[in-house]
Amino acid sequence: MSDRDLGAALDDAVEVGAQWVRADLAWTNIQPDGPDTYRWDAFDRVVTAVEERGLTLLPVLGFTPEWARPAGCASKHCRPADARDFAAFAGAAATRYAPSGVHTWEVWNEPNLVASWKPAPDAGAYTELLRETSQALRNSDPGAYVILGGLAATSTKDGDISETAFLREVSARGGNHLVEAIGYHPYTYPFLASDVTPWGTPWERIDGTRDSLRSVLAANGTPEMPVWITEFGAPTDGPGTSSDGAPGTVGPDTTHVSEERQAQIAADGVRTAAATPYVAALIWYAERDLGTDRRDSENFFGLRRADGSAKPALDALRDVIAGVRRGSV
C-alpha cells in the first residue's frame, strides 16, 4: 500500500472507534533471502503509522519463504521445514517491535485448513511450531501475549480439520498451555452472530454447542481461556446468489450478502461479542474490498468498496461501537 492508502485505512479504524488493527507480518517479506538477513522497512512504516494514531497492532506471523519450506512444497502457505527458523524470525520481530508497544502476537492464520498449512493441516507440527515460537517471543519480550493462530470454522473433510477437532489435538499435546488466548474466525453470514439455530453456527460453536471451543478448553485444563475473534465479516458480492437475511434468500448457492445485510451483521457482531462470555476481542475483516472481480467473494469483505466509497457497514460499525462504549446497546 502507498503511504496515503495505509493512512486512510488506519484513519478508518480510528473513525469507527477501533482500538486494534490486525496485519500480516509475513516471513516471506522479512527474510526472503535466507536466515541471516532481515528486511524490516515495509513493516516498520506500518508500526509507525499505527503508533501515531494511538492504535494497537496485532501482527499475524506466517508465510514461509522459499528457503525455509519442506522439499517439494512450493507455496508460501507451506509449513516451515524447521520450526526453529520460524521461531528465530518471531523472536527477532518481538525484539524490534516491543519498544513500539507491540506485545501481542498471533501465530499463523487458519492452520486447520489445507489452503493455509500445506501440504496438509497437522496439529502435531503446529504445536511444535507454537512451542518454539511462544518461547522465542517471551525470551525477546517477557510481556508477550501469544494467541493461537485463528482457527477457521470448518468441517473435517478434504484435508481440512474442524476447529474443535484441531484444538482438541493441539491441546492434547499441551498447546493450550503455550498461549494466552485462542484465535477464531466464526463467519456466520448470511446469518447473524446472535442467531440461535438447530445446527449451530460458527459463533454458536464458541460455547453454545455440545462440541464447542469452550468445552475443549475446559476438558484440557484451561476453562477460563479467552477467545479472540481475529476475523469476522461478510462479503457483499460474489459468483453465487445474494442474501438479505430472509429465509428465502438463503440456499446452497448463497455466496454473499447485500450491503444492508453486511451492515446488520457488523452491528450485531459487536453487540454479540460484547455479550458473549470469554470473547475478549472482535476484529472486523476487512477495511476495503480487494477488487471488483465477482468470480471471487474474497474481493468484497470491505467496509469500503474498491473505489474507496463507503458501504453502509462503515457507519453501522462506528455507531454500534460508540453505543457499546456508552452502554446503550
Describe the secondary-structure layout.
Blueprint: H1 3-16, E1 20-26, H2 27-30, H3 41-52, E2 56-62, H4 83-97, E3 104-109, H5 123-140, E4 145-152, H6 163-172, E5 181-185, H7 213-219, E6 227-232, E7 241-243, E8 254-257, H8 259-275, E9 279-284, H9 312-326
Parallel strand pairs: 1-2, 2-3, 3-4, 4-5, 5-6, 6-9, 7-8
Helix pairs in contact: 1-3, 4-5, 5-6, 8-9
Radius of gyration: 19 Å
Average per-residue pLDDT, rounded, comes to: 97
Structural class: alpha/beta
Shape: globular
The residue fraction in helices comes out at 25-40%
Number of strands: 9
Distance between the termini: 35 Å
Main-sheet strand order equals 1-2-3-4-5-6-9
Order of helices and strands: HEHHEHEHEHEHEEEHEH
Give unreliable regions as ranges. Answer: none
Describe the overall structure.
There is one protein chain. 43% of the residues are buried. Helix 1 packs parallel to helix 3 and helix 4 (83-97) packs parallel to helix 5. The strands form two sheets. A seven-stranded parallel beta sheet has the order 1-2-3-4-5-6-9. A two-stranded parallel sheet has the order 7-8. Helix 7 links the parallel strand 5 (181-185) and strand 6. The chain has helices at residues 3-16, 27-30, 41-52, 83-97, 123-140, 163-172, 213-219, 259-275, 312-326; strands at residues 20-26, 56-62, 104-109, 145-152, 181-185, 227-232, 241-243, 254-257, 279-284. It has 329 residues and is an alpha/beta fold. The mean pLDDT is 97.
